[in-house]
Amino acid sequence: MSAVPETLGKPLRGTMGRLATVAMVAAVLWAATLAHAQTDVAKMSGAGHDIRKFKIADGIFQFMTMRDSYVRELNSVVIVNSDDVLVFDTDTRPSTARLILAEIRKITRKPVRYVVNSHWHPDHWSGNQVYADTFPDLEIIATEKTVEFMRNSASLWPKKFRQQLDAMQSDLEKEIASGKGADGTPLTTAQRSKDEADVRDYRSFVEEAATLRRVYPTLTYESRLTLEHGGREFRFMSMTGDAEGTTVLYLPHEKVLITGDAVSYPIPYITPPPTRQAETLRELARLDADVIIPGHGPAFHDQQFLRLELALLETVTKGVRDALRNGAQTLDEVQRSVTAEDLREQFTHGDSDLETRFRDRVKALVKLAVREARDGQDLP
Ligand SMILES: [Zn+2]
Hints:
13 helices; 20% strand; globular; alpha/beta; five-stranded mixed beta sheet
């Protein structure tokens, strides 16, 4: 996900009533992506979560949490070594991490020795305590920047989540009172139950977020870290993803690349200066990888989506530069001229909810690109 204040509101508020369609379309898209790749799929449900397991390579498994509070298709990657296990990202809350750990126990009895936190956004490290409590020798790996951002942000989240819940609850009450969904169409019984379930799920998330114990990384690095361990080579690289100091993990022998939110599906998260994230994507494209596991979304077996995300960043930064040089005076003017419409269909495949998200994301991206192009200055 991108930074909490910017994205927490958007995926849920105003989209109640359309999430089911998104889920269906997303399912169809995966089916297409995974048809040639999937070697083992299991589905586990518990505590209201739907988590799916995909075997990526020998001893390497992707666990995808389909939806949880404000996030979708969130990945935690499990790598079994000769004597122990490494887990890349620990999900949105301890109860989800516990479900994944229970699944790891079915794969192997080896202890988890390393956890990696790709970046500071709370959907990627809020299950740390589960691993730290279970495995006393655990090391948690992240960049120095990530730890800084974690420590500077974590105390703000419980209140932020609570406010988000209050807003959802109030939207739901308005829907029920008016008999109309967020898009103005009559509220059906099925839709009402679904929206009520979303609020319940978010409430349980808020309660967990309020009481969870923050466990911070113990093994930090600045730009590169290589670990020869348990019969594998792990190359950790600090890059600009949708957060500065994002850890990307590359396994050169297995040709597996795990990106955190430097790559995210279906509509990419982008928050730092766009040209820096674009540079990361170019660097990732140069690595010899058979499989790319993004922070959110299915594993990719080619560079198609990575290159599409790069094309979006390049299209917007170039469009913004042109608009500014042609005399645009306001942000609104630039946002109206730079829409990346030519790329929209490749991200949204005709789904109306994804189209709304795409347009909103492009607007946000244009704002970032303007800021970067003008040395930190926004336009009025
Ligand atoms: Zn994320």
